[in-house]
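Worked example

This section walks through a single chain of length 743. The input is the sequence exactly as stored; nothing has been trimmed or padded.
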Amino acid sequence: EGRPMGPRPEGRPMGPRPEGRPMGPRPEGRPMGPRTDGRPPQGPRPDGRPQGPRPDGRPMGPRPQGTRPQGTRPQGPRPDSRPMGAKPEARPAAQKPDGRPQTPRPGERKPGDKRPGQNTRDIRSGDRRPQGQRPSAAQKPRKPAQAAAPAPAKKETVKDLKPIVMSSTISVQDLAAKLAKPATELIKKLIALGVMATINQEIDVDTATILASEFGREIEVKLDEEEFDFLEEIEDAPADLVNRPSVVTVMGHVDHGKTSLLDAIREANVTASEAGGITQHIGAYQVVHNGKKITFLDTPGHEAFTAMRARGAQATDIAIVVVAADDGVMPQTVEAINHSKAAQVPIIIAINKIDKPGANPDKVKQELTEYGLVSEEWGGDTICVNVSAKTKQGLEDLLEMILLVAELQDLKANPKRLAKGTVIEAELDKGRGPVATVLVQTGTLEIGDSIVAGQVYGKVRAMIDDKGRRGKKAGPSTPVEVVGLSDLPLAGDVFNAVKDDKTARVIAAKRISRKREEDYKVTARVSLDDLFKQIKEGQVKDLNIIIKADVQGSIEALRQSLQKLSNEEVRVNPIHGGVGAITETDVMLASASNAIIIGFNVRPDANARRAAEKEKVDLRLYRVIYNAIEDVKAAMVGMLEPEFKEVVIGRVEVRQIFKVSKVGTIAGCYVTEGKITKIADVRVIRDGIVIFEGKLDSLKRFKDDAKEVVEGYECGVTISKFNDVLEGDIVEPYVMEEIKREL
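Given that input, the structure is written out below as tokens.
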């Protein structure tokens, strides 16, 4: 009964089966064909073999649970001759998983193997490993997956209905995400509300509130005040407060003598160190009277500088309104009074030019009563001082009144804190870069301080006072020029000294970002009126202008004045404004946009002048704002569509008709009034009704062509494209004359 130990035929791992069993495929394709000894083909294995009965009759199913045999498994590497692949197709069986012990090949001795002459069956009855392979994990049939229990419906909680938090604006996409709605649904709602929006469109609080209410949600506005944390108003201890000089703004109508009055005051108080005659372009001055300092701010009187006057009134303690005694109250005088009242500052009236013939101070006081300013002499509470900038009459009285009003106000400030104030003016200096004239209102500004003004930051590298002297610090109510800013701030911006340069940079960056958001949040409302307006705008001509000026305030003033000139046909469009000389870049921009360049108190450099000549760019330079406005107005008049007026030049009566072949109808006429010309348009009138309008084909006097025929003469006419002329018709010649347009 012993089986041979030599190599198995044809390399088959199991050798010939006993009792002549075939090696072909097993019946019914089953890997575990019919067994001998009458055992059922699928039944349990004898001798307690570890494979046990397989469930459901599956040949490869999972094994039943229970203790598996713990017999010793042969160790060591597999013999090289042992094939690792699938068994021959004749005996299909799954591969043994890695790590499963293989049946030792013939010729190999293992512990417990039969010695020569030992009965093979005795050994097999012991720890024999079962034949065949265990199914791999991939071959095991999967257990039927349990049906996933349906997730409980999420109940809408109070948290879900919390208000949606937003800042001043929010994009449609972000709002849709917070509402958990598709952005397209929000856009449809917006269109229904008359707002054309894209998914990235910024919408304001009001629009967002309406949208949210459509979905049953509320909006909560939470503005980002992080940047102002360090700018909060600091409560100054009473012990730190000291008296400060008063800030006086001089306002009034143009040519009423404001600057002359200031010059007279400064000249009377000038120090010997300033005798060099250096004139500082600062717009703010400080003088000393009776040992007390007074700070003066000068504002332009032209109507273009309304914003400047408003800023001056807000940064001041006392307003001096200058009125010419020979001119009386004028439009900018009224405006100055209104600005001062709005800023709630005391007003002192300086009646100037009292030395001129025809000066009438009482008339001025009478006119002022119409605006609620009653002189003290007339029982009111308005201080009126008669002065003359030319003869210096009344200057001492004016200064005394300023000090008196300041004393009543008890002006105090804390010089021991970080500085805060207002930007009065800003300009671009060729050698020093951006230079800002600032008025320190509280605290002390020192060299090296980091400051932020609007969207601009910087470090104070130099400070120059109104007398041209360099200083290291500036206390409350002191005007100084500051050098060291990153860019030009806007006139009227509030500046703050901060603890370090990093803080200044962060604040400026946040302000720039916020400004950009505000610029983008403008939405387009759709209505028939708007559509009509847009259609009309296509017919509007733009006069593009580039403004260059010496200071920031002049740019703003020019822009506002020129934009006021716009009408329904021509629109003034300032496309760029900058401080400093006119450069080649400005010329290139003007050439590309078909613009004219207006320079106010600046000059073009050599390259810019050459480029302007080459590109044929219109470059205008002015020192007086009136001239700039008048020239732009003239340019706009040239852009207006011409208007024509019809002028009837005569009256011609048809007295006889001639029919001529190849020519048509010739009307023999008599000029009863005026004249008829060859180039004139004509209308044919019959029984008081116009039956035709057109042009003359020919005008003859006898047989000769004529340019015109005057009253009392006969002529022959043919009318283009009209032969139905009858005797008694009236031919009325007329011309279209162009009317000069005005703004």
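What to look for: The radius of gyration is 51 Å.
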